[in-house]
Amino acid sequence: xxxxxxxxxxxxxxxxxxxxxxxxxxxxxxxxxxxxxxxxxxxxxxxxxxxxxxxxxxxxxxxxxxxxxxxxxxxxxxxxxxxxxxxxxxxxxxxxxxxxxxxxxxxxxxxxxxxxxxxxxxxxxxxxxxxxxxxxxxxxxxxxxxxxxxxxxxxxxxxxxxxxxxxxxxxxxxxxxxxxxxxxxxxxxxxxxxxxxxxxxxxxxxxxxxxxxxxxxxxxxxxxxxxxxxxxxxxxxxxxxxxxxxxxxxxxxxxxxxxxxxxxxxxxxxxxxxxxxxxxxxxxxxxxxxxxxxxxxxxxxxxxxxxxxxxxxxxxxxxx
Length: 320
Prior knowledge:
It is a single chain. The protein has a seven-stranded mixed beta sheet, with helices on both faces. β2 (26-32) and β3 form a beta hairpin. It contains eleven helices and twelve strands. By secondary structure, the chain is α/β, with parallel strands linked by helices.
């Protein structure tokens, strides 16, 4: 019979796993873990089908599933360090997806990740590959130097929306226009998460932020920037996709797109950018499950999901 294995001291009590479980296997324990959080437990283990929905949505990689004698494991491309992100923040889900892809493609030992200023500033503690810190907005410039100097390496950046679409917009446009053979993981949570919840280039019309307490006024601040649609207009070949990690189905689709982006780099085909719609429960003033619902209802209509640009067949190398 399938069973859920919970590393309780990794958990921050966000309850996303409980909301994702279709068989109501999980419930919150009355105990508190070493971090001071209540954590989930298997209240009805007999109902478990091994669907792994709980594992897919866990932002702290605190859940594994045993099924038919096989136990899922924490990706080798992640360190044992617990994530520093707020409870329910889906940065951790995205980290796990990137790490799983690096493991599956067998490239961890020759991968370099670049993390700039922002919520991901401590990513060097979480990814078990070489990491390089970059100044705010400059991750793609650093990635360009590394990739051009060592084209044999697999290079990715991990950037938030304020970093990539505001202070780093010049690097974003010119790196894509030059067709740098790097992979960009762009986390869009529609707000400056680390520095106080200010309005970001991606904040939605009417959305409240610390610098627009009555909501974003498009007459003053303009409309949110759709980055992948903007880059689509460049002539240079690129792979551009937008995904989200608000539920298990979307998590699986996100991993597929991230994997494709890294494959294009390995083939030397093109610049790749995956925009991942992510939640910021603390910055939005919501419970984690409410934030997922808000993302689905508000962000997805403005930032539609799917592949926005795919390299022409003639650009793809033979045999790829």
